[in-house]
Amino acid sequence: MAFRPRNKFSLEYLVWLERKLSKVGLQITSRNRKFVVTSLKEVTELLIWGDQNKKPHIFDFFLEQDMMNLFVGHVLNKTTPLQVKIQVVQSLSILFQNLKDERYLYSILSGRSINRLIEAPFDYASDIELLATFVSFLKVRSIGKYV
Fold first, then answer.
1. Which pTM value belongs to this model?
2. How far apart are alpha carbons 98 and 135 in whole angstroms?
3. In whole angstroms, how far apart are CA 66 and each of 82, 95, 109, 134, 142?
4. At residue 138, does pLDDT exceed 90?
5. Which candidate, 7, 43, 44, places its Cα nearest to that of 22?
6. CB 139: neighbour CB atoms within 10 A?
7. Which residue among 5, 12, 83, 125 is least packed, with the fewest CB closer than 10 Å?
8. Long-range contacts (CB closer than 8 Å, 24 or more residues apart) made by 53-60
9. Mean per-residue pLDDT of the chain
10. Residues 6 or more apart from 117 whose CB is under 8 A from it?
11. Rounded mean pLDDT of 7-17?
């Protein structure tokens, strides 16, 4: 699927995003940083849309492709630009706040990715914005309906 699908809210679009993000991997540069941030936002929107519109195949694909691991990998990678790290943490917060299907929340929380993120040693003194975003994420996670 070389061309971007027209319908943004479709499995085909999520497949396209996943392939593009996987191709970039953790090699984020100044040339592809904006694309990665936008793609992370779009994946988040698609997952919430799929949940709200009873489209389980959207979230199933996200899980099958282990996209959560890719998300968290961006935050844990020392060379990932701060803007991308912040977007990942914001996206996770948005997912926790907006997903209604408890199976999806359980799937995200039952994997090791979230624990890796929470346990990771960060240098927050140099990244105050990341610290603020991460604290918000922890608040959302701790007071959520899935605890």
1. 0.89
2. 18
3. 22, 16, 13, 22, 23
4. no
5. 43
6. 11
7. 125
8. 53/9, 55/11, 57/11, 58/11, 58/14, 59/101, 59/104, 59/107
9. 89
10. 72, 75, 76, 89, 92
11. 96
Express each pLDDT in 93-104 by its tens digit: 999 999 999 889
Q: What is the DSSP letter of 5?
A: P
Token pair 């919430």: residue: 48
* pLDDT of 147 over the 60 cut: no
Q: What is the pLDDT of residue 2?
A: 67
Q: CA-CA distances (angstroms) from residue 24 to 21, 36, 65, 103?
A: 5, 8, 15, 29
Task: State the Cα–Cα distance between residues 86 and 39, nearest whole angstrom.
Answer: 14
CA angle at 24 for the pair 107 and 138, rounded to the nearest 5°: 40
Residues across the chain? 147
Q: Which amino acid would we find at residue 61?
A: F
Could you report how far apart the first and last alpha carbons of the chain are, in Å? Answer: 39
CA 133-42-34 angle, to 5 degrees, is: 70
> Do 42 and 17 touch, CB atoms closer than 8 A?
yes
**Tokens (6 digits) for 111:** 């994997």
Strand ranges (E), 1-147: none
